[in-house]
Amino acid sequence: MSRHVLHDWRPEEPGFWASTGQRIARRNLWISIPNLLLAFSIWMLWSTAATRLNMVGFQFSTAELFWLTALPALSGATLRIF
Predict the structure, then answer these.
(1) Which listed residue, 38, 56, 72, 82, has the most CB atoms within 10 A of its CB?
(2) Distance between CA 19 and CA 9 in Å, rounded?
């Protein structure tokens, strides 16, 4: 099994936290913060750009623009389940 798969996680236990848990939590924090920043930045940028597509020559209905802005959030929420 991979060494990056958690088999034991007891963060409430002080001994486990001091020996193992804090290191794992910090690594996860340093990996997830930049990734989430990038993901939310792209999500917000796309949501803003998609609402302006009709101004640059595209012909989308209001419903189509809604789906264009909603799909990144829906796909991200669905993929987060796995």
Answers:
(1) 72
(2) 12
